[in-house]
Amino acid sequence: MEQTEADAGGVAGDEEQGTKRFRAKRDAILSAAAEAINEQSAKGMTFADVARRVGLNTTSVTYYFKRKEDLAAAAFEHTLEQLLAMLDEAMAAGDPRARVRRYLALNMERLARVQRGEDRAMAVLSDLRATEEPNRTRLLNRWREVFRRTRGLWGPAANRAETDLFGARAHVLLENTFWLPVWLVRYEPDQYDRIEARLMDVFERGVAGPDARWTPQPIDLDHAETEPGRAAFLLAATRLINELGYRGASVQRIAAELNVTKGSFYHHLDAKDDLVIACYRRSFDTISDAQRLADDAGGTHWQRLASTIATLLDVQFAERAPLLRTTALSGLPGVVRTAMVDRSNRIARRFAGTMMDGIAEGSIRAVDALVAAQALMALQNAAFDMRKWAATMPRERAVAMYASTLLFGLFDDRALGG
């Protein structure tokens, strides 16, 4: 039978509608997977949980994604594509300041939509390195492209020093936008515009007062370990969790790193969650010790802040006893995760208190100290990922250049002469 134009149009329309329904359902599954990953990590996510969130049965989810690993990889890829799209839009702005301002605005707009229930959160990328091949290589290549495009917001580098500085700025900008969802919930949605302006102010001009100079004093954080064996487990676990995420760093892998048995692991700790909690406590205690010792040493509050940040960055770059990345939070039970975020916020408030006192004495610029403190938490926490970058130059230069991104701002070139 001959097919008329009307019939052909009807078939095409049906196919288009079918394609739209397929994409809509697939996008809903990816959004649900992102929520599950953010709460339980990629390895903790299950088809059953994702199906429940979307209102489907498990078989319906497997129609779109045959393996759980493929679903997690697709959720990560969706995050990376969203980041690349925002960076492309930001890049269209006229100069580096306008580009960074636009990129921040796009992130804030997205978080506001999530808060209003008009959008869903992106999947955090903490488990990216723990994905299986062939997904792992593809995803890491996309992540490198995200980093390159972020670095490109500052334009082409004229020399190696600018490449290094732009790389540090890109890393700090990305990590701050990743950390935003954790602390932005403490504000009412109608305050988001104000928070955006205050955070951009820190990005643009830093926190240092007009006469501030970068002359940090080293803080001695060395102290005797009461349980050397347990301390070795905590340090090995911290390094592996930072690199592979909570689920990627298995007990067996941590034990193998130390060349001991799993039984030896359980001699020191009862369960893996206990290990992560202990790692966080060690990390938070390290930051608190640095803050306290800086206060004990006296000096201006700018001097105290600079010394604390310099010491913590040196700890991260040295890699001997790094701080645990906040990316491990997604693998922890909700109650424990809340307790860890609360401790982080208490430490941030101490940074804020130092800045408030510095503003009063004139050594620190008038900024929103609570916002700036959260930016500093992201800065020092994420420095572990820049250890290879730091290894390409003298340690003091690496610390000064990385710290300059927020202490003096993302557009201050004084770090190039350090």
Automatic annotation (TrEMBL):
| Chain segments annotated as coiled-coil in the UniProt record | none
Q: SUPFAM superfamilies of this UniProt entry?
A: Homeodomain-like (SSF46689), Tetracyclin repressor-like, C-terminal domain (SSF48498)
Q: Which PROSITE patterns match?
A: HTH_TETR_2 (PS50977)
Residues in the DNA-binding region are 46-65, 250-269
**Transmembrane domains' residue ranges:** none
Ranges where the HTH tetR-type domain occurs = 23-83, 227-287
Entry's Pfam families? TetR_N (PF00440)
What are the entry keywords?
Answer: DNA-binding, Transcription, Transcription regulation
Q: Name one GO molecular function term.
A: DNA binding
Domain of life where this protein originates? Bacteria
In Swiss-Prot or TrEMBL terms, this protein is called: TetR/AcrR family transcriptional regulator
Species annotation: Sphingomonas liriopis
